[in-house]
Amino acid sequence: MRTDLSTVNLKQFTTPTYDLKSNDTKNENLIGQLLKVPLLFCFLIFNLAFIQNIGAQIPADPVGLDARITPPTAGSGEIFLAVGPNQVGMNNTVYRLFYSLTASAPVDPKTATQYIFGSTAGDGNGTSAFGFMLTGLTPGTSYTFWLYQFNTSSGMYSNGFTSDVQISGAAAPPATNVTFCVDYTCVAQTPGFAAQQIYFEGGPSNGYRNLTNMGNNIWCGTFAIPAGEVRFNFFFAGASGAGGPENLTGLACTSNGAGGLKRSFNVSGTSQSVTYAWQSCAATASCGPTSPTDSPATPTCPAANVINIYGGGYPTNIATNYNPFWGQSGTVNPNFDPGTGNVVMAYTNFNFQGTDLTQTNASSMKYLHFDVWTVANPAITTLKVSPINFGTGPAEVLVTVPFTSGTWNKVTLPKSAFGGMTWDAIRQLKFEAFGGTPTAIYLDNIYFSTCDVPSPYCNTSAYHLGIPAETATEIKLSIGNSGENSMTVDIESATASPADVLIVEGAAGATISPFVEVSPGKLRSILRWLNGPPPSNVMLNVLWSKANFGGNWILRDISIPFIAVCPTIPLLPTAPTTAAPLPTCPSDQVISLFSNSYSNVSVNTFLTPWSQAPVTLTNTQVAGNDVKFYQNVTFLGIETTSAPINASAMTTLHVDFWSANATQFRIKLVDLGPDGTFAGPNPEFELTFNNPKLGEWVSYEIPLSSFTGLTSRSNLAQYILSGMPNGVVDFYIDNMYFSNCALPSGWSEQGVNCPGTNYSYNPTTHVYTGTSVNCYYPNSFVSDELASAQRQLCGNGTITARVTSISGSALGWAGVTMRESNAAGSKKAQLMTNLSEFSRREFRTTTDGTAYPQQFASQSRYWLRITRTGNQFVMFISPNGTTWYPAGAQTIIMPNCIQVGLVITNYTENSSVTAKFSNVTVTGGNQTKPASNGNISEDIFADTDFTVMPNPTSGYVEINMNAYGKKDVQMEIYNVQGKLMRSTKIDASRGIEEVDMTSFVNGMYLIRMKAEGLPDVTKRIVIQH
Questions:
Q1: Are residues 179 and 163 both part of a single domain?
Q2: Which one of 121, 193, 583, 594 has the largest count of C-beta atoms within 10 Å of its C-beta?
Q3: Rounded to the nearest 5°, which phi and psi values hold at 905?
Q4: Percent of the chain having pLDDT more than 70?
Q5: Are residues 713 and 595 in the same domain?
Q6: 50 & 147 share domain
Q7: Does residue 244 lie within any of the structural domains?
């Protein structure tokens, strides 16, 4: 069912967020909701044909124009006009708007009446999106409007569009003078308050109007109202002019329409008057009780999760004195009975009050909870609370308590709201009242706890307007706290048609991100309070649409505590507590912009002046390691313009990235080009990484070949980082450097159930270096956690490696593996060493089965090998790579193609282990060339050897292979670019082999010898004809 536009009335116009598509009923419907469409309307989106630019200065066409009548101003000669931003405000482009009576529309629209931008509030000055009311038109008459984009430099217009008729409303029906009065007798007031107000939904002045003091707390106003229903409510204004609306919940004289709950009155006939008491349907105020007559609900948080201060919900508390004298004006009664038999604590004539406590370490607690009741007016009286700490951090931070007068308020304040307090030595608690005269408050169930407040929306079915009969609109809605100043809204369709649009509005004070798709069909928007703390209770509207169903839908006036938690929206840490993985690439293979591990090049700035505000940079440390912390990012620039980087010999860009709220991370490289300036061609390219893992370090090892549009990288000068959601994403950056330490071709770094994986490869020494951070899997051994570098092996084959070192904050295991897949519970054969007393073998014969480690004496045999023949997996160990000893065998049914690789796991859960592997080979299967990444070099320290003579040579060489015994040897010859020039199998039993290289051109070459069970050995040879 599509929304009836005549019933829609939202509180905020947000057109700049949307793509206004012509003839799109979904967008028509959605914009109708967003633009307060009332009972009489006329709606048109002008579709502007796409025109290719004829020359660089012709502006693009606007996306569209929304023009409509909005009653009760029908007949007033007013038209509402709105459009999105398009390209205006950039490159000398502005809007030009013309209009005319349709009956006398000119041939050239630019000769019609021109609207002067900047003359009406909301018109965007012609340089941004607008939404404003154009007045002075003739009622009951058709008008045509034309909107162009205009280049002020070239004087050229966009193509514009043909005339379309927009109908102004008919003459307005006669209005009736209605007097509205409100009795404020039960509302506490202070001298000097501003005039009380009434708010009309689309009524006179389309909003707030002042009332006049008639005496005896009665305020009235007379307004001309057209016949029919009028919807309104009263506002109380405090001494500062700020106040709040009345609470109309449960009142019979209201209606819940498009604008939410409002009073409703039908206007007809001659002059009328209506009088209500504040927050009542009665004409005369009847003030409620001045003290509670009921008790709050018994708390449900388990006692083990609570440190109690007051209340009968828990058997013990840490209070020692509920009424210490600190100079306060009031008294304390800890045994006030509201008539239920369950006593509460009464503070009468209250201005502030303290409680003495047994000094307690509450640092593990997450919240301060209490229930409070008062007749104080929140527009006048501010209530605050703070624990008082005698340990580390701030001693006292007063936090404002949200409350509604005349009812029990359940208050849960997060520890983060108390400005860095540690709560490690709580000795006192204090409540204070500010503004107005001393009042009375009543308290119960005061305690610290670790119990989260559950979100009422956690994978919860939601429907258009909250009507379950609207089955086609059903979504699963999740809303929850996601950080100190942020909330997250997720939706997924509950029907076959996936959700394709999510819009969140309201959430006072929040910056709301455009939605992103975090997984197929799952849309997310993040709310972030950048300027001041978030409200304790968040009010918002959620709008959505679906890909295969015409219509746009809304769930209005959602009220949710800011601290409400939904398990599917994890509450992530706001900052890393561990440093990024330590880089392992040798320094002579690195050009570093920022890292404690290397000498960094000269960087002009890590935050250019042209970075998009309000981004900020903080230089800080994590676990003693320097990092860059960027906040509120849309995009930011880093520059090395004084000394551009020549990265032409590098193969990868490494960046360590940590974020608690990023849904996307982007990085752009800009080169100055051959002339070394911004004047000439400046090659650039940007890569996008969607949905990075949150709350942990993500190590990006980016092949420079992926920057496909970066045709030169010898003068790199700009590095532009950006992310989503725009303007609210925060992230930490560390270890930003170029290197040529990428893993060889065919290999990849893919941790098994362990994000803390980092591998590098030194093409000079053929050494793999891996780091495992917190990769640890205890008994029951059904789910692995391994730092892994791996490649595919199809068919029979062998992996061999020598573990040369294990180091780190704690020791661990390193070795080789053959796995069915990268899943944590996949079938496997795994052989490892701790480079000390033990070796360790593991077999998992069924998926997700147990793989009990079996340890045995290592005997200093640190060469490891696993061989597959069919479904038979056999393990070997060796002290020298020549003599091999069986270490285990097992039949495991695995597919033809499996993953083989190098693995590391830790002794303990919170530790970092680094291991080095040399003499790594994978033979058999479909392997065709060494994993060299195009970089071949001499194995200077190889155990097995051969000699090449003469060297240099004019073309013929003799190769002595006596060290290989009777093995068959595969000889491969490469040029220095890593290209395979020749591959020949040789019988080593002949001892010496003559090789003809006369056809090779002069230069240096590399000869690699490979034999089953032995490490590869490579030698240089120089040809000089």
A1: no
A2: 583
A3: -140, 160
A4: 85
A5: yes
A6: yes
A7: yes
Residue 7: DSSP 8-state: G
Q: Using 70 as the pLDDT threshold, list the residues of the chain that sit under it.
A: 1-57, 63-64, 66-77, 84-86, 140, 160-173, 188-195, 202-206, 237-243, 258, 436-438, 550-551, 571-572, 742, 745-746, 763-764, 925-944, 976-978, 1013, 1015
> Could you please report the per-residue DSSP string of 647-684?
-TT--EEEEEEE-SS-SEEEEEEEE-TTTTSSSS---E
DSSP label at residue 752: B
- Which CA distances in Å does 377 have to 237, 241, 373, 547? 11, 14, 11, 47
Q: Are residues 645 and 732 in the same domain?
A: yes
d(CA 760, CA 701): 9
Q: Is 292 inside any structural domain?
A: no
pLDDT in tens, 159-195: 765 445 455 445 556 778 899 999 888 775 544 455 6
Using only the alpha carbons of the chain, give its radius of gyration: 37
**Three-class secondary structure assignment of 549-614:** EEEEEEEEEEEEECCCECCCCCCCCCCCCCCCCCCCCCHHHEEEEECCCCCECCCCECCCCCCCCC
Same structural domain, 251 and 269: yes
- Give the pLDDT of residue 107: 85
Tell me which residue range forms the domain holding 523.
460-561
Amino acid at 163: S
Asked if 261 and 353 sit in the same domain, the reply is no
Instruction: Judge if 773 and 802 occupy the same domain.
Output: yes
How many structural domains does the chain have? Answer: 7
Strand-by-strand arrangement of the 684-690 sheet = 635-639, 716-724, 664-671, 684-690
Cα angle for residues 318, 322, 328 (degrees, 5° grid): 140
Q: Which two tokens stand for residue 596?
A: 């404690």
| Closest residue by Cα to residue 523 from 499, 541, 549 | 499
For 964, half-sphere exposure in the C-beta direction (CA atoms, 13 angstrom radius) is 29
* Predicted structure pTM score: 0.46
| Amino acid 801: pLDDT | 96
Whichever domain contains 226, its CATH number is 2.60.40.10
Look at residues 701, 720, 738 and tell me which one is the last residue of a structural domain: 738
Residue type present at position 694 = L
| 68, 28 contact by CB (below 8 A) | no
- Work out whether the CA dihedral 815, 817, 821, 825 comes out positive or negative: negative
Domain ends where: 738, 765, 791?
Answer: 738
* Same domain, yes or no: 805 and 912: yes
Mapping DSSP to helix (H, G, I), strand (E, B) and coil, where does residue 818 land?
Answer: strand
Q: Whole-angstrom Cα distance, residue 937 to residue 1018?
A: 7
Burial of 423 (0-12, 13-18, 19+ CB in 10 A): buried
* Residue 589 main-chain phi, psi, to 5 deg: -115, 20
Give the 3-state secondary structure of 316-382.
CCCEEECCCCCCCCCEEEEEECCCCCCCEEEEEEECEEEEEEEEECCCCCCEEEEEEEECCCCCCCE
Whole-angstrom distance, CA of residue 806 vs CA of residue 808: 7
Decide if 701 contacts 749 (C-beta within 8 A): yes
Instruction: For residue 34, give the H/E element and its range.
Output: helix 25-34
* DSSP annotation string for 37-105: --SS---EEPPPPP---SSTTPPPPPS--EEE--TTSTTTT-EEEEE--TTTTSTTEEEEEEEEEGGG-
Task: Compute the CA torsion angle 985, 987, 992, 997 (nearest 10 deg).
Answer: -20
Q: Identify which of 42, 41, 60 has the alpha carbon closest to the alpha carbon of residue 52.
A: 60
pLDDT > 90 fraction of the chain, expressed in percent and rounded: 33
Q: What distances in angstroms separate CA 411 from CA 385, 403, 453, one per listed residue?
A: 11, 8, 10
CATH of the domain at 401: 2.60.120.430
The encoded tokens of residue 465 equal 């307007």
In a domain, 930, yes or no: no
pLDDT in tens, 117-138: 888 877 888 888 777 778 777 7
Residue with tokens 């001309």: 224
